[in-house]
């Protein structure tokens, strides 16, 4: 059970601390919360931990790990409704969205810098799709295992990863021409895989390509996704 290794998550980034991950674990394992009142969602102690204070974060995580240990032993080898989200090999919509947001925040320290790479009122700017909208597309279309998802102008590639984690497509591919989004996408991809592994969730192969979608070298990638 991933809860047992939370004490090794020592990141102090305000958007992605071990405490943030801990709170997510607590939410997805509610049966453990009543055992110690100071971790209850309504507790001021629980809510007022300074997320950039490593000692405070480590203390509350170590407390939680002590409680989680017997539950981890209980979970092994049996099915328990309280542990359903942990035992599934695919991430549900809520967890997948959280993982994507977590990885994005770690890879893109200042999202506003991404906007300066796109000149207003040009063909390079054509809107952005949210995770909610992408999920609606997934639900409507119902991607098959033989499908290839292709995002032209993928930015940092968050939708490419979302599809890889939320469907069973053959593979998910994104192409981005601008340097900064492509660089952030590479970092996000590594972080996304790390968190998927940490939660013990599977995802389909994905690839983020840096270049012009009109370049001849991407012709096969694009045409294969259409076949």
From TrEMBL:
Domain DOT1: 1-227
Pfam entry (one): DOT1
An example molecular function term from Gene Ontology annotations: histone H3K79 trimethyltransferase activity
InterPro entries recorded: DOT1_dom, H3-K79_meTrfase, SAM-dependent_MTases_sf
UniProt enzyme class: transferase
Keyword terms: Chromatin regulator, Methyltransferase, Nucleus, S-adenosyl-L-methionine, Transferase
S-adenosyl-L-methionine as UniProt keyword: yes
Any one Gene Ontology BP term: methylation
Keyword field contains S-adenosyl-L-methionine: yes
Catalysed reactions, semicolon-separated: L-lysyl(79)-[histone H3] + 3 S-adenosyl-L-methionine = N(6),N(6),N(6)-trimethyl-L-lysyl(79)-[histone H3] + 3 S-adenosyl-L-homocysteine + 3 H(+)
Taxonomic superkingdom: Eukaryota
Subcellular compartments: Nucleus
This enzyme's EC code(s): 2.1.1.360
First-listed, main subcellular location of the protein, grouped into a coarse class: nucleus
Note: In contrast to other lysine histone methyltransferases, it does not contain a SET domain, suggesting the existence of another mechanism for methylation of lysine residues of histones.
Family listed: Belongs to the class I-like SAM-binding methyltransferase superfamily. DOT1 family.
PANTHER family: HISTONE H3 METHYLTRANSFERASE (PTHR21451), HISTONE-LYSINE N-METHYLTRANSFERASE, H3 LYSINE-79 SPECIFIC (PTHR21451:SF0)
Function field: Histone methyltransferase that specifically trimethylates histone H3 to form H3K79me3. This methylation is required for telomere silencing and for the pachytene checkpoint during the meiotic cell cycle by allowing the recruitment of RAD9 to double strand breaks. Nucleosomes are preferred as substrate compared to free histone.
Protein name: Histone-lysine N-methyltransferase, H3 lysine-79 specific
The species this protein was found in: Oesophagostomum dentatum
């Amino acid at each position: 059970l991933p809860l047992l290794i939370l004490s090794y998550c020592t990141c102090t980034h305000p958007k992605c601390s071990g405490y943030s991950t801990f709170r997510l674990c607590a939410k997805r394992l509610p049966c453990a919360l009543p055992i110690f009142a100071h971790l209850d969602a309504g507790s001021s102690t629980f809510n007022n931990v300074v997320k950039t204070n490593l000692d405070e974060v480590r203390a509350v995580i170590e407390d939680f790990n002590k409680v989680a240990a017997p539950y981890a032993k209980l979970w092994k080898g049996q099915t328990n409704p309280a542990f359903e989200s942990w035992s599934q090999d695919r991430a549900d919509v809520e967890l997948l969205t959280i993982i994507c947001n977590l990885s994005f925040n770690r890879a893109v320290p200042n999202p506003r810098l991404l906007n300066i790479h796109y000149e207003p009122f040009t063909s390079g700017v054509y809107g952005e799709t949210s995770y909610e909208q992408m999920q609606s597309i997934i639900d409507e279309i119902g991607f098959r295992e033989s499908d290839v998802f292709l995002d032209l102008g993928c930015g940092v590639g968050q939708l490419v990863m979302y599809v890889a984690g939320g469907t069973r497509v053959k593979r998910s591919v994104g192409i981005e021409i601008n340097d900064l989004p492509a660089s952030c996408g590479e970092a996000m991809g590594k972080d996304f895989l790390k968190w998927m592994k940490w939660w013990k969730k599977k995802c389909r192969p994905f690839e983020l390509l840096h270049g012009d979608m009109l370049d001849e070298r991407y012709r096969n990638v694009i045409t294969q996704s259409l076949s």
